[in-house]
Amino acid sequence: MASADAPKKAGGKKGWWFGVIIGVVLTVVTVLASGFMIETTNTDTFCVSCHVMTPFRTAWQNSVHGGQNPQGFAAQCVDCHLPHGDFFQFFTVKAMTGTSDVIHNLYIDPYTYDWAGATERNRLKFTFDNACRRCHHVLVPPGIKRGGFLAHRAYLRGETKKRCAECHPHVGHKDMIEAVNQYFKKNI
Amino acid sequence: MRRSFGKIGIMCLALLIVGAVAIATAQTKYPNLAGKKELVIKRGFTKEALSCIECHAQKMPGIMEGWRASRMSHAGISCYDCHVVEKSSPMASQCEGLKGTNIFISPMVSSKTCSRCHPQEVEQFLKSGHAKLASKAVMDASKIGGKLLKLQFHYEGAGFMDKKAYKWNEGTPKGAEGIDRAARASGCQMCHGTTVELGPDNKPINETWPGGVGTRYPDGSIGTCTVCHERHTFSKSDARKPEACGACHLGPDHPNIEIYLESKHGQQFLTAGDEWEFDSPPDAWEPGDYTAPTCAVCHMSGIGELATTHNVQERLKWDLMHKKSVVRSGERGDGVKGEQNMKKVCANCHGPTHIKSQRDTLDYSVALYNKYWDGAVKMKKELADKGLLGKDPWQDGFQELMYYLWHHTGRRARQGAAMNAPDYAHWHGFFQVFQVYQDMEVIYNYRIKNKKIEELSTVMSSAPY
After folding, report:
1. What is the pLDDT confidence band of residue B167, given thresholds at 50, 70 and 90?
2. Which residue, B248, B244, B168, B242, is CA-closest to B211?
3. Residues of B at the A interface (Cβ-Cβ below 8 Å)?
4. How far does chain B reach from its first CA to its final CA, in angstroms?
5. Rounded to an integer, what distance in angstroms lies between the CA atom of residue A45 and that of residue B20?
6. In B, which residues are within 8 Å of A155 by CB distance?
7. Is A167 on the interface with B (CB under 8 A)?
8. Domain that includes residue A93, residue range
9. What is the pLDDT of residue A1?
10. Which of A146, A176, A178 has the highest number of chain B CBs within 10 A, making it the mutation to test binding with B?
C-alpha cells in the first residue's frame, strides 16, 4: 500500500499547518460563540460601538420598548432584532447580521444613505415574530381594543399572513427617522 | 277728528312695530335651529383622542354624527386611531388643533390602516381588481401606451385645442393646470383612484384626493375601503346594498346597477328590500335575511358553504370588461374556480336546471359577442395593413365605432346576459352591437373599394345608448 503511505509522508509538515489553522479558527469560533461573548455583544452598548447605530439607540430609548413605560422594562436590541426560535437559529442569524452590519458599516455613507427607504424595505428582514412573542405571550389580553382583538385572533388562527411589525411598525423606536435625520444633520 | 288722529296714531305705532320685527327677522340670517353640537365623552378614549372628538364635533358635526352612530364608536375606535401617523410618514401633517404638539395626522386613510384590525379582508381586497388594477387605467402610462392618460388630458381636457405637448410618462403631466386636470379629477379618478400628489405641508394637491377604490397613497399603500363602507359610519349594511356598488358600476359603459334593478333579483329588492335584514354578522347573512340577492350576496358575502370574501373576482368566470372576453386567469382571478363558486352561490336558491340554463345563456352570449369582436379585429387589421386607418382614432368613424362595440354596446350585451337583464342584453346590447358592426362593415367596404379614408367622420352621435 505504497500509495497510501506516500501522502502521509509528504503531508507531514502540511498536516501541522492545517492543524494550526483549524485550531485557531476553532478557538476564535469557540470564544465568539461562548456565553461571555454572546452576552457582551447582546447589549445596546456593544451595538453603538458602530457610530451609525447611535440615533437608533436614542430613538429606542425614547420608546416604550426602550424603557418609557411605568414598569421601566426595556427590551435590548437583540431581543427584537434576532429570532428567538432555537439557539442554532439565534446564533446563525446573529453571526450573519453581525457580519453584514460590519461590512455595511465600511461602505455606507450614513449622511447620504436612504435610511427612511431602507426602513420600509427591510423592516420585516430585521424583526422576528418569535422575538415579539417571547415577551408578548397573551395576544388577546383582557381590555384589548376590539380592533386589536379581531386582528390578533386572526393572527393566532393563522387566517392572516401578516407579521407583528406590519401592523406595529414603529413600536421599537420613537420618531426614528427624525432622530436619524437630526443626528446626520439631514434637513428633511 | 280727534278720534281720527287717535286711529292714525295707533296705525302708525302698529306699522312701526311690524316694520321693526320684519327688519330684525331679516337681519337674523340662517337661524341655527340645531344649535351648537357638543359631544362630551369621558370614558374609553385617550386624552388626545378625546380632544379630536370634541373639537371636530363643533367644527364638522356631520362627520362626527356619522362616527357616533357607527360601530367604530361602539368599539372604542376614534378619529385618532385611524388618522394618526408617524411623524416621519410622507403623509404626516397637522391640523390647527395639533400645531405645536408632537402628534401628526393625515386626512388620507388607506386600506393599510384598516388592515391593522381587519387583516384578512384587506389581504383579499388587495388581490382583487378593486385595488391596484382599478387605478392602473387612470395613472399608469404603461397601460396601452399611455392612451388613457392621453384621453384624459389631450382629448377630454381639451389639450388638443391649445396644442399642448404633454408627456405621458409621469403621473399628472407637467404643465397641466386645474382646468386641464378637470376631466380626470371630476370623472375617472372618482371611481378608479389615481396617485395622490402632495404639497409642501404633506396635504394632497392637484385634486388627486379624495379618489376612488384603487387610490395609490404616498406611503405606498393602495386602496380605499371607505368607497363602499362609507365614512364615517363604515356600515356593513350600506356596503351590502346595491347602491354602494351602483355608485361606480352604472352608466352607458357598464350599467350594472341598472341591469341588477331590471333583473328579478333587483325587482325583489325594490319591492321587498325594505323588510330585509342587512345587519347580520359577517358570513351569517344568509337567505332568509333576504329573499333575493343584492350585488354583495353573489359576489362577496358568505353564503351556504362559501365564506365571505373581499376579492370580488373569486366568483367570476369571464372577463366581461375588456375587448375580448376570456376565462379569467392570472391577476384577474381563476375563471374555472370562479364558475364553480358562482354555481354554489346560485344553488342556495335555484335548482340545477335553472342554473344550467342561466350559465349556458351567458356562455353563448359571450361567444356571440366574441364572434363580432373577432370580425372587427380582422377588418381593422386589413385596414391598418393598407394604411386605411385614421391617425386620430376619435376622428375616425371605424375606430370610434369599434370602441363603442366593446366598451359600450358589447359590455351591455355581455353583462346584461350575465345578470339577467333582457333589456340591456338586447336593446342596449346585441341590437346595437349588430348595427355598430354593420356600420363598421360599410366603412370598411368603402375604404377598401375607394382605397381612401372618407373625409369626414361618419360617426356624429356621442354614443349609442
Report:
1. confident
2. B248
3. 75-77, 81, 86-88, 102, 115-120, 123, 220
4. 80
5. 81
6. 119
7. yes
8. 15-183
9. 43
10. A146
Asked whether residue A25 is domain-assigned, the answer is yes
- B104-105 and B84-85 as β-strands: parallel, antiparallel, unpaired? antiparallel
Pair B256, B342 in one domain? yes
**Residue B275 to residues A72, A146, B291, B292, B366, Cα–Cα distance (Å):** 57, 30, 10, 12, 36
Q: Read off the pLDDT of each residue in B112-122 and give the average, rounded to a whole number.
A: 95
Q: Are B208 and B196 in contact (CB under 8 A)?
A: yes
| Residues in chain B closer than 8 A to A176 (CB atoms) | 88
Region of poorest pLDDT, from A28-32, A79-83, A157-161, B97-101: A28-32
What are the pLDDT digits (tens) for B224-243? Answer: 999 999 999 999 999 999 99
The full DSSP string for A58-85 is: HHHHTSGGGT-STT-----HHHHHS--S
Inter-chain contacts counted by CB atoms under 8 A, chains A and B: 51
Q: Which helix (H) or strand (E) holds B260?
A: helix B256-262
Q: How far is B453 from chain A (nearest CA, A)?
A: 54
- Residue B6 has a pLDDT of 72
Asked if the Cβ–Cβ distance from A178 to B87 is below 8 Å, we say yes
pLDDT tens digit string along A20-58? 999 999 888 777 777 777 888 888 889 998 889 999 999
* Domain-embedded: residue A2: no
Per-residue CA distances from A142 to A145, A148, B43 (Å): 9, 11, 17
Q: Cell 452590519 identifies what position?
A: A101
Longest CA–CA separation in chain A, Å: 81
- Same domain, yes or no, for B363 and B446? yes
- For chain A, how many residues are written? 188
pLDDT, tens digit (0-9, with 9 covering 90-100), for B237-266: 999 999 999 999 999 999 999 999 999 999
Q: Is A178's CB within 8 Å of B118's CB? A: no
- The mean pLDDT value for B23-39 works out to 62
Q: List the domain range (segments joined by +) for residue B332.
A: 236-352
In angstroms, what separates the C-alpha of A151 from chain B's closest C-alpha? 5
Q: Does pLDDT of B273 surpass 60? A: yes
Helices (H), B116-215: 119-127, 132-139, 147-150, 159-162, 178-183, 189-192
pLDDT at B33: 61
Which of A116, A147, A169 has the CB atom closest to B117's CB atom? A147
Query: How many of the other CB atoms lie within 10 Å of CB of A8?
Result: 9
Size of chain B, expressed as the number of residues it contains: 465
Residue A147 contacts B where some CB pair is shorter than 8 Å: yes
- Indicate the SS3 state at residue B310: coil
B387 in Cβ contact with B439 (< 8 Å)? no
Residues 6+ positions from B440 with CB-CB distance below 8 Å: B376, B379, B398, B401, B402, B405
The answer, yes or no, to whether ipTM is higher than 0.85 is no
Residue A10 lies inside a defined structural domain of this protein? no
Residue B331 lies in a domain: yes
